[in-house]
Amino acid sequence: MRATARAIFDAAVARAHPSGCLKAHLPPAPETGRLILLAAGKAAGSMTALAEAHYLDAGFPPERLLGHAVARHGYETATRHIPMVAAGHPVPDQGSIDSATRALDLAAAATADDLVLVLLSGGGSANWVAPAGALTLAEKQGVNKALLRSGAPIGEMNIVRKRLSRIKGGRLALAAAPARLMTLAISDVPNDEPTAIASGPTVPDPTTLAQAREIVARYRLDLPAAAKALLEDDASETPKPGHPAFANSTFRIIARPSEAIAAAHAAAVAAGYHVHDLGADLEGEARDVASRHAELALSLKQAGKRAAILSGGELTVTLRGQGRGGPNQEYALALAIALGGAPGIVALSGDTDGTDGGGGEASDPAGAVIDATTLARAAALGLDPARSLAENDSTGFFEPLGDLLRTGPTLTNVNDCRVILIEP
């Protein structure tokens, strides 16, 4: 059952990889101008390598191809022509600032004869950071840490981030005008909202400063003075739909969480399971969602069903302790507790990008796997699951059990994939 759960997860990841979906969407090269390729996010390396090969192998002059690509540390890919660098994630670093500055400079130099091709994926918000106003990198890092600890969903985090940036919320499109602009994106957000993918640097932003202020107040975020000043300044508002900067711009999603979950669904059916598909856009506190899923799994078990429960989306964790972990590991830990060692149930929860929370290292686990023996094996090692959950220390719980899901960087990102298998 563990092997089957992993195979279902791997099917979801494979469906989202750029190797299977990018080439069909690449636009024709410009006839006379330059092709300026800008990429950011966890799939930036794989997307850039595939895109540059597509154009160079077709005979596009390399002197007319320029650009810049940035991914989180450990997610770099060897490229032939376009420079590839690494930057911090989830907390930005100097590489994030240098990359955003380079992207803005390249976009601003584009002419009406040029095509600016932007390749976006999850993680782009942290990889492209251009603090506005008097905000420093250290202060921007502090804002990011406060948002991550707040338990706010990613969409609300991005509403705040856009007001503190010179590249997010459509501002890269402002820089690129009047060039033709095309964005190809791998979605890692609920409902595939373009404004939320990498904080929407190339699309108009319908959210408002008032919303950002309300989010800060609701989560009681302690922001630096420079950030507060930006949120109080009407000039920090983002460009809206109808702005002329978007007149020559196209945005297209090439891989979606729903397609990854559909691939997982097909794999589960092929393995002989009746699938309960809960959708690709689940949100909420990881431990609360786990509790509800445990109830469903136990009811299916009691009914004698051979079933698979599948779900995607992006769960959150409100940090109360000082442990290590991420939403997928915390979900798995809470699920194990709620299932109470029920026989015949195996579950896997993992982030399709290959890393789940943790310290921002490429070696962080993608999630965790549980089964009927999890709690008994933990007790034999002196591990207290309730205490680990209270301390947000899911990594510390699963590591000695050998039950961390370790995939390494997958070079794509379409949110989480959770698999629960039930045998009658």
From TrEMBL:
MOFRL domain spans which residues? 308-416
Membrane-spanning residues where?
A: none
Q: According to its UniProt record, what is one Pfam family this protein matches? A: DUF4147
- Origin organism is Bosea massiliensis
Q: Name one GO molecular function term.
A: kinase activity
Read off the PANTHER family from this record.
Answer: GLYCERATE KINASE
Q: Taxonomically, which superkingdom?
A: Bacteria
Give the protein name, as stated in the record. Glycerate kinase
Boundaries of every MOFRL-associated domain copy: 5-232
Kindly state which keywords UniProt assigns to this record, in alphabetical order.
Kinase, Transferase
